[in-house]
Write a structure and sequence with these properties.
The protein is mostly helical. It has one domain (about 1-130). The protein has helices at about 1-30, 35-50, 60-65, 75-100, 110-120; strands spanning about 55-60, 125-130. It has a two-stranded antiparallel sheet with strand order 1-2. The radius of gyration is 15 Å and the shape is globular. The model has no long low-confidence stretch (mean pLDDT about 90).
Length: about 130
């Protein structure tokens, strides 16, 4: 119940805007054709950025116990390219939103979620979103 309330507040106070930023990054990647492998990550994280409470980002190799193309050396190269093209500006957006949310005590959980997304913004390849087990 608390996750639902936080998600509703999140959407109203900046979550929708940041999810649209992730969606825009994904669309731009698809348009470039060579960015299609990065677009999938952007679309998955756009949904996470829209409704983050009750979910978490984890490395796919930790979840499955085996490496795949996104968690190995090619994933690392992909993350470096992502950082240079889109990761830094998405991270800056989340950092700005975190700062705005942290001004009030009520906004601290939202700021914390933005900080987690800022870190994810830098290197999203090889990550997946799962329900959090509390």
């Amino acid at each position: 119940m608390i996750s639902l309330l936080l998600n509703i507040i999140w959407v109203l106070f900046g979550g929708l805007l940041m999810a649209l930023g992730w969606l825009l990054a994904g669309v731009i990647m698809v348009i470039t054709i060579i960015g299609i492998p990065w677009a999938r990550s952007a679309f998955v994280i756009a949904i996470y950025a829209l409704w983050p409470f009750g979910k978490e980002a984890v490395s796919r190799d930790e979840l499955t116990g085996r490496q795949d193309i996104g968690t190995g050396p090619l994933g690392m190269i992909g993350n470096i390219l992502w950082f240079l093209v889109a990761g830094w500006w998405l991270a800056l957006g989340h950092l700005g939103a975190a700062l705005a949310c942290a001004v009030t005590i009520i906004g601290l959980p939202l700021a914390w979620a933005h900080l987690k997304l800022a870190g994810l913004s830098l290197f999203p390849i090889g990550k997946t979103i799962v329900d959090r087990r509390d």
